[in-house]
Write a structure and sequence with these properties.
It contains six helices and 45 strands.
Amino acid sequence: MIPDDSKNIQHGSPQGSVQDAVARLFDGDLSEQEFAELNDRLENDPEARREYFDCVSLEATLETVFYPPLSRKNQRSLRRAEKSEPSSVIRKTLRWSAGITAAAAAIVLCVMYFTPTEPAPTETKFRVCGNSQWSVNGTANPSTNTLTRGAEFQLYQGVAEFKLPYDVTAIVEAPATISLIDDRTLRLDQGKALFQVPTEKGKGFTVVTPHQRIVDLGTEFGIRFSNKHPDQLELHVLEGGVRIDALENNNNSPDQGTIIKKGRAVLLAGTRVLREFDNSQTTFRRKLPEKVDILFEDDFESGLLPEKEYAVQIERYAVRNASGKRFPGIADDTTWHFTTPPSAHEIFAVGFETPSIKRAAVTAIAPGWSEGGSKGAYGLRPSPISTEGRQHAWLNGPATNGPTTSHITLDQPISAGTTYILTADVGQTENFHGSQGSLSLHGSDQGFSNPIATTTASPPRGGWLREQSVSFTATSDIATGQKLGISISCTGGPQAIFDNLHLYAIPPTTTPQPSTHTSSPAEPNTPPIITELSPANGTTTGSPDGKLRLSFNQSIETKAGRFIVKNLTDDTESMIPVKDRRVKVTGNTITINPPTELADGQRHMGQLNGWETNAWVGIFNPKGTGTRYHHGDLRDSQSTPGTIGAMEGPTMATFDSTPPNTWIRRQLGTITPHSRYTVSLAIGVRSDSAIAPASFDGYTIRLTSGDTILA
């Protein structure tokens, strides 16, 4: 046994005091105070802990060698000894046994408490690439690289990489919202993310979304939320497999949920698979890039609208000079007014209304129109599918003798760079079906038989296709002084009907030029003076990209205040803080991109701000507030909630019944070496007619350099 040579166990006591305390602990002779003192010393003295382990190990070894475990025979001998041995001896033996038990427990506790162990993997580290914008719990770009449990991480711009416990990595692209539930559970409320779980340690890692739980089964998978339907998301399984559980399955029960394996890409609504699609069509970032430069961004929710009267006001202290000295703001709180021109102006229109015509066919549709087909009658008739006896232009086949065509040449020279758009309603009666109506634009040099642009419409039996369109942008080889011509034809059947022809011209789009004004030396304590406004005050003009610009006589900066942009035509007003993302300051120039305010469901057709187009395009606002869109908006036969409320918004670019191979395009800038360029956008399709839903031929996204297609 351990010798009993001292009862002093205070800090700094001689060698042996810990041994004595442990021996008396085993014998049950250590008081409560002495036990507390021993415990305190073990917590604070590494040498004392080493001595303690030596004593406990020795005592445990002695007990193993000299005191075999109690068997039933030993227990009977002990009961006989109870009758012959004094009670004090028995109590000492029991105390000794209790001491050994306590020592064993103490060994376990001390090993747990004092032995250095690897900390549990509870930290989630993150990094963001250059030019990223993010926040943690509302604090923008905080000086931390650790995401704690419950903290909300919002990524507004760029890419973030998360290193989670158990070898799990997530690469997240903006915009995204993330929070950490625990070491194996991440919540993703929006965004696009790739999750890599390369080892068995990460198996069971779970991504919780607002509508399902995605449980890893040893894999790599990507998630992308749908912008159009907030309750849907894309799931791409690149390696291994995942299990899709309902939100209420919080115990990770393996007998629940659908298994999605490698190679599958599905659209999910909750745990339900809506459809599958090609896994190769969506790419996910596999590593954190050095930086992300956003060269261009357009959600079509900003820019001046055509044919509107605007007033713009600057709050007095919003703009200051760049010298760092204070002064009383700009010279005055300038307000300037202007009216934007139409983006497309009408140069020809005809409704085919001639009061003297009743029911008989005539030899000409209207004055100036000529026959182009060798067979078939044509003229004006009131249509059975019209309202209030309205008259339309009728073209009769038969198609076997070639198309019946009527054409007219306008007193309108074709101008280089101008886009011409012809629209018309094309119909068909109940009695005749299978006919097609075509619209064409031609030049006077080649005539109607060699159109510059043409499109064909197949109206439903007894119905109309409204605002069918054809367009082209004139190049210098076409703009030779020849006049512009229009032709309508009946092809492929016995009869086609036309009405409401409109021809529009969109002037060439020019790139906004930077201000030629150079900053002149100014006193550092003088307020800046406005030298140029675009659009200019009191004019009827606009800017090609729909932005406002102010130039000053010196370099400026913005401090605090607002720009107030009023659309006097629509009675709307926008308050834009000077530090808003829609305001940019470059040297002595301020550029403002005002928000576009459209009524729910209203469309404005024509040119898109800053874009080139060869089609009849515009912007559309399906806010999805429950408004029922009537036939005037959707061109169908009845009011309907349709799918409009589910589409993106509040403002989108839209093609309106365009023929194939129409486009919008934009010049972005110079291509730099060793750079990777990526284009992303959302595309939606809606039906034009309740009678004959429109077909969609598909879309193409191109990156080009001149005439060279890069991707």
